[in-house]
Design brief:
This protein has about 130 residues and is mostly helical. The longest helix has about 40 residues, at about 60-100. The radius of gyration is 18 Å and the shape is elongated. The chain starts with a helix and ends with a helix. It has 5 helices and no strands.
Length: about 130
């Protein structure tokens, strides 16, 4: 499933993901990747169920109940990713910053915290 700027309601596709540089190496979610993919497939099934419900003219309140469940599932997934980002990426930046104290390496931790804060702000807007 591909999301475009038009799908996300943003004027700029980079705004949704945040203007970020390419990150190489394992991400915080790497150890849980299979579980995350399984969870996303389940959410995808919920969305397909919504389409089927509309196609079959199911009662609106029942559809809204399913929308709520799908939204909660996505929010829960997002919070899990955020937690993994904080544990992996932000913590790594903090350790690296402490190791290079005095070298001006504190900028990376500030950037990671700002990135996480922006992600939290996007989650709260939904």
């Amino acid at each position: 499933m591909t999301t475009t700027a038009a799908d996300s309601g943003t004027a700029d596709g980079d705004q949704q993901t945040g203007a970020r540089e390419e990150h190489h190496g394992p991400h915080g979610y790497a150890k849980q990747k299979d579980q995350h993919l399984k969870r996303l497939r389940r959410i995808e099934g919920q969305i397909r169920g919504l389409q089927r419900m509309v196609d079959e003219d199911v009662y609106c309140i029942d559809i809204l109940t399913q929308v709520s469940a799908s939204t909660k599932a996505l929010q829960s997934f997002a919070l899990q990713l955020l937690e993994e980002h904080l544990r992996h990426c932000v913590a790594s930046a903090a350790v690296e910053s402490a190791a290079h104290e005095g070298d001006g390496a504190g900028g990376e931790i500030d950037a990671k915290v700002a990135e996480a804060t922006a992600a939290i702000a996007r989650l709260l807007r939904t």
